[in-house]
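G., before I forget:
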Amino acid sequence: MNARNIPYCLASAIVVLAAVAAQSAQAQSSTTATSVQPMFSVGPKFQQTTGESIYRSVCQGCHMPQGEGAKGAGAYPPLARNKNLEARGYAVYLVVNGQRGMPPFGEMMSDGQVAEVVNYVRTHFGNNFTDAVTATDVKQVRR
Amino acid sequence: MTHKDTPAFTRRDLLNMIGQAAGGGAMYQAMTSLGFAAESNFSGPPKLAGAKKGSSVLILGAGLAGMVAALELRNAGYKVTILEYNQRAGGRCWSIRGGDTFTELGGEVQHCGFAKGEYFNAGPWRIPYHHHAVLHYCRQFGVALEPFVQVNYNAWVHSSTAYGGKPQRYRHVQADFQGHVAELLGKATRQGSLDSVLTQEDKEKLLEGLRRWGALDAEFRYREGIATSALRGYEIDPGGGLMTPAKPSKPLELSELLQSRLWRAIAAGQAYEFQSTMFQPVGGMDMIAKAFAKQVGNLIRYQARVTRIEQNERGVTVTFADEARGGALQQEKADWCLCTIPLSILSQIDIQVGAEMQAAINAVPYGSSIKVGLQFKRRFWEEDEHIYGGITYTDLPISRISYPSTRYGASGPAVVLGAYVFEGPNSFEFGAMAPEERVRRAVEHGNQIHPQYADEFDNGVSVAWYRVPGNHGCYGKWTDALRDQHYKALCQVDGRIALAGEHVSHIPAWQEGAILSSLDAIRRLHARATA
């Protein structure tokens, strides 16, 4: 379910549910598709739990909906067909710690959420890196 | 009688407790650690004199940092050129008006449909009275200022999980929190709980102060009555003649008020940075940018995207893509260079500086911020709710609503800041949406506070700073650790190059920081140039 399409009348209920969903998210298997994904998180941490919804709620702000990146006075690198994603730890490191202007997300996402979104990016937008990242991998990257 | 040897509760503890109860203390402490609350060091524009004949400075970026440098360096006798990526001057000092078109990264285009005279400040929107440099240049250029209402006692504070989601008046939360705290502290004082830190005389003065501060009755209670209503407002206001007599209002109950967490909102306006009097330029923040551009606009070359910054012992060479001519590469040379390009972009540009400065350029992440401007058909917040300027705070994703601090009582449409969110998940979530969806969500959420939104909304625009092509982010997001490691290196004059902008200041995200960093950089650049 695309978080964007949640009817507004459900939104406040979803926000409440999301807090519960987020708490249990870490316990869930990384491949479980959570049925309810919040459009907006409550509190200081993201509450989306699936790779796709995290990408839609966070990453596409800069890397754009199709992972195509963007160019202005500087550039946001495309994630689509990006060979740098081949090394499993690379994207994990960037999401957790940031790089240059890119902010670190380590404090705002759980190990499981980072793994989810990295796995999503590494298997979408023309990328086909099937050696999935785990929450344990993310934990090891945290400084 | 006192017990000076009891270490359990000190005078300092007491002062801290009072400060926190009053709201400002914790907030100010937190902000100081972020570098947000430093006072400006401005003591007048720099007195630069004796520039070597024919010497030149190339300035990168025509925001306030770049333009103030251009102004002062040109006046000192330098030949000055500015390269600017955008087609306009001002950088983040930017107001959007009806008829304006804005294309964000990703290609989404917004056409602003605001009425004539209406505007929305996409970037900075308020000026503290102690931002002396900004105020100095406003005075010098004749930029008209008007009060910016930061605290409005009649605006709302709102929590979706308190009071059944019904917004509460700021004055009720403020007066009742203050009154209840005064009562509690009075009780503790009278019961002798503070005897270890207070003399009998201290206690008497404290109780006298608490009674006034909290509108307590003769028994030091905060109770419904004319005295408390004189702070929080009445159920029925006093009138004239034979009108219904004034009726006191009923204070919010202590425990529910504490649990509501609405007291968080009443601290903001007490911080040094937001204390009265704050200002805004009449007609939009970019009146400052326009005033600078009137002075130095002839020095600006627009649509120049810098790709390389080189230097040697003789001078500086900057390569740029001329976006007006299909990106054809060109070069500009000068003796010195002041670079005000945000680090989010500069960290991607090939620049010849030392390893320490390069590390500093690469080290600073950029902050997230989104704003949504909403035009409504009428000023319902004034007409229906008696809110004139100021800010409503909410725990909804929009975070706050700010009403125009200008043209009170005017008929016709007016523009409200319908969402302003920085940091935190919601700013990213808004920023990841298409522009029209940001507007739609701001209207939907704001409607929970102002049901008039549904009928009165006209049109809106939104700016997500990560998607602003000339910025790639809102401001340099320093931490204490990053400052310790990199700040000094970023501030150095490296050969013939110096950096400036809010990111090279202890007042990040404020125009004062941009101007002060620039004035400090050109003072040192000039010293080197004339050595």
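The longest strand of chain B covers residues 414-422. The first helix of chain B runs from residue 11 to 22.

More on Monday.
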